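Loading example: each entry is read as five labelled lines plus one structure line.
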Amino acid sequence: MDIASVIGLILAMGLILGSIAMGNAPFAAFIDVPSGLVVIGGAFAAALIAFPLKSMLKSPKIALKVILNKGEDRLGLIKQIVDLAETARRDGLLALESKVGEIDNPLVKTGIQMAVDGSTPEVVEEVLRTETEAIAVRHKEGKGIMDQLGRFAPAYGMIGTLMGLIMMLQDMSDPSGIGAGMAVALITTMYGAIVANVFFCPFAEKLGLISRNEMVSLEIAIRGVMAIQSGESPRAIDQKLKTFLPPSQRGEE
Amino acid sequence: MDIASVIGLILAMGLILGSIAMGNAPFAAFIDVPSGLVVIGGAFAAALIAFPLKSMLKSPKIALKVILNKGEDRLGLIKQIVDLAETARRDGLLALESKVGEIDNPLVKTGIQMAVDGSTPEVVEEVLRTETEAIAVRHKEGKGIMDQLGRFAPAYGMIGTLMGLIMMLQDMSDPSGIGAGMAVALITTMYGAIVANVFFCPFAEKLGLISRNEMVSLEIAIRGVMAIQSGESPRAIDQKLKTFLPPSQRGEE
Amino acid sequence: MDIASVIGLILAMGLILGSIAMGNAPFAAFIDVPSGLVVIGGAFAAALIAFPLKSMLKSPKIALKVILNKGEDRLGLIKQIVDLAETARRDGLLALESKVGEIDNPLVKTGIQMAVDGSTPEVVEEVLRTETEAIAVRHKEGKGIMDQLGRFAPAYGMIGTLMGLIMMLQDMSDPSGIGAGMAVALITTMYGAIVANVFFCPFAEKLGLISRNEMVSLEIAIRGVMAIQSGESPRAIDQKLKTFLPPSQRGEE
Amino acid sequence: MDIASVIGLILAMGLILGSIAMGNAPFAAFIDVPSGLVVIGGAFAAALIAFPLKSMLKSPKIALKVILNKGEDRLGLIKQIVDLAETARRDGLLALESKVGEIDNPLVKTGIQMAVDGSTPEVVEEVLRTETEAIAVRHKEGKGIMDQLGRFAPAYGMIGTLMGLIMMLQDMSDPSGIGAGMAVALITTMYGAIVANVFFCPFAEKLGLISRNEMVSLEIAIRGVMAIQSGESPRAIDQKLKTFLPPSQRGEE
Amino acid sequence: MDIASVIGLILAMGLILGSIAMGNAPFAAFIDVPSGLVVIGGAFAAALIAFPLKSMLKSPKIALKVILNKGEDRLGLIKQIVDLAETARRDGLLALESKVGEIDNPLVKTGIQMAVDGSTPEVVEEVLRTETEAIAVRHKEGKGIMDQLGRFAPAYGMIGTLMGLIMMLQDMSDPSGIGAGMAVALITTMYGAIVANVFFCPFAEKLGLISRNEMVSLEIAIRGVMAIQSGESPRAIDQKLKTFLPPSQRGEE
């Protein structure tokens, strides 16, 4: 679980709810179901137009990734690659066949399997790079959904507020109702700003970061497989791959 | 038919119409024909200035693509390429001549025809890549029209609202008319926001996505043709091209 | 003449003037000479600061290009290149010397002249590419002027409106004048929005499109010259260059 | 200490506080603790959702970097590289082993150590480039946090203002309270604009500049190490690396 | 002196001052010293935080460059390079030694000096390219300062207006003062818009253009030096370098 994201979500919602509680208006003044429907429903409807149904159905899972992601265990990945390199050095590339089942990282698994099967380094690299690109495309779509939700939510908030203002302006016979009418109209803009800035925009940012981190791990995996196949020494591989770690993590041999 | 886009469109319009129905203002309060003309007519006029007539006339067809696109059948494309590779392996490249007529994908068709006619791999690749670029340019123009409509609609909405406000401010002798005048002025901004956020902007996003997907299929087609021409084994081609599929789809042999 | 741009301009202006005519305020209410001077004069002044005098003096001619451009005759260009290739094939490269005078396209002319004069293919390509880049830079500056005018017009519109509001707020002794004062203040913002969205922004878009189209023709010209110089067969050149055409145009042999 | 940043901070805060002091409203009118909590707390909460806890905890240190950075001593770095090159020229590459301990720049240190240990130039360059990329990624994240804070602060300012307006509009029974209610509502927007434009946005800009400067020093270090390893003459190295300095600094031999 | 920039500046200021003179409010209504301090002082303070003191101190000189730049004399530069090429052709590369002192362009000077001193073409090009990159970085920083001033000026304008509104709303006991209070509050936003759109934004645009032009001249210089060193004929060099000129300037032999 990504503790920072959880704390951030609780803090953002707590600040907003706390501010309302500290004010002298009742909570009910901030609740308007049709406004909520226009903002959230509208943003999802616009995203549904723009993205495939399959991707949209996966979007709650993608959003959960922000909260549940555990970070990349790059040190473990490098350790496993170096282990494989040692086996390959000692017993030959074919000796890795028996170890393929134990490999966690799917890219390393595919690469080692192909190397054992006798694919040339060029073909192995091409396959792994295409795979990486495909993963990048999937990530980009996930982030894109959040980006669009964060862009459409305030837009539908503004549409709702305009509708509310037009309704209010139609009937100004009772001046005492103007304030309340305008308050309701503004709620939609507020909802749009809240869902965009508490959920969609920070979530999109985080998904971008998670993706960039995963891309680095995939790069480590590709370079590791290529180095094993070209018979580099485990020590050289370890040194080369550890440059991807922050200095503080490198000491842990 | 792209069910997600249809649901999204119905949902977005339903939410907006439903909100109006739930309010206490009559529907008529939200209808103003001159405002609609300024927003939609203005956005199309600006797009007509910016794009060729031929492209503008195709824009309804392009917009329909958002609703009617069926998605790429990449698995079928790969299967067909692997079939061709098997024939080429068994009976030689020239044996593909009789099969050219059955090929659906125009890029594969062109490529195989050229290979059979004896063009060198470099020439075949150059022709296919130029073709792909030209398709990308056409897609970009289609998306560009939607992008510009989505940008000009709110701009003309604002122009209409400013005109309405100036009219209203000219004649403030009857204070009871101010509210109604302002309501009418705001309708143009609301129309601009609605057509941009229900139609043009999500449509532009979707066209970008459809284009990116088609580009991947074109890349599969090019790599497939190149692999057939260089005589790679059908199994290797299958493995290489399937890296373009999401893992879940790869199992289906 | 680019009929779409002309129709678009007439339509956009017609919609705006028609809306005013349909309203109940007199035309005079929308005319304010100082506002017009601040918006249009201000935008041109800012562009004068940002661009060389020479480029600014050419800007009306550039703007006219949007209306007068006839589109690229790529089919004719390809035909001429294939004709040259046939002559070169039949009678040798030097036989093209007598035909140089008939070549319309300046890039093809320069390239063929250089090839006849004995320049190496590398030098010919370098010269043609540098020329193309220089044309791209000139186009970019033309589009840049329109972009900046489209950005400064609304900015000076806002400056004018702020000046008008400050004037109005200085003297609120006569409440009946407030409405008219505010109307005049808003006219500047409206002018800025109109000139940006009817003229400058769509013009900038169109200039970008015209430039991209011309770049494709220049690419056809360069590839054609290179192919002629390297002695490719007219048929291969025809096929290669026609990939730059939309499929519908290719059939016309 | 970066004197410019400190002066800038004091000047910006002084101008804002001075303007308030010169006005006729008491200081207390500009202080509202819940508004401050919503803006600053909200911006940090949104950043917490978007960035890892570890990076967020480092953000105060990163912000201090803006004030404490001393600038790059490129002249000293070049001098040290040229010294190493002279030793290598005179006594051989292995003679650098004893000098590794004295090298300040970690990249030069790593590179020389690897060269002495017998790594090939290709491997040395790959390791140093990967290291540089990793540093660039860390810098980008630091700047990214400031960028997001500078984007979320005004957003939460707007959310706070909308909440304040809704509260105020709920209760318009006492007209004399409307002004004060609206003033409080606007404070949140003002806080958001101030923290974004006095702190987060200029800090993000400065971090980008510091990073670009450091990248140039890293490039000098890499090129220096590569030149030493390939045995270039100290004079040539000095001349080559000094092109990275502004002309005014080059004279100092 | 760049006459266009001077005319533009006078025109922009004249239009703004003329509009005020034509209105019925006294000039004094548009002057508010604290507002000016907040906008201009605030923008410079934010830039001071973001840029090194040394760069900020050079910013007035950079701003003057917009007015004083004379444009590039590319024709003269090409003529000088062709002259040098003729000497080198006739009397050998070493004969250029005596001419180095007469060369105006610092890049050509450095390059010819290095060529005469016996540096290889690769080294000469590397040094000249690094130098060019360093100049590009310095230009970018100059433009960056103007960009940031043009971004911060309106931001501090808004901060000033919010402060003014809060002050005004605190004390609404005297309704007749509301208009004047609001007018003063709006002056800050107007100042921000004026300094950004009359000075900083057009200046940043112009600096970008001047830099791009200078980059082309540097490219001419580098290609000229490389061509001289590789012994190309003066006529070929002339033809190659003149492709960087607009066609109208090429005729002047």
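Residues 1-253 of chain B form one domain.
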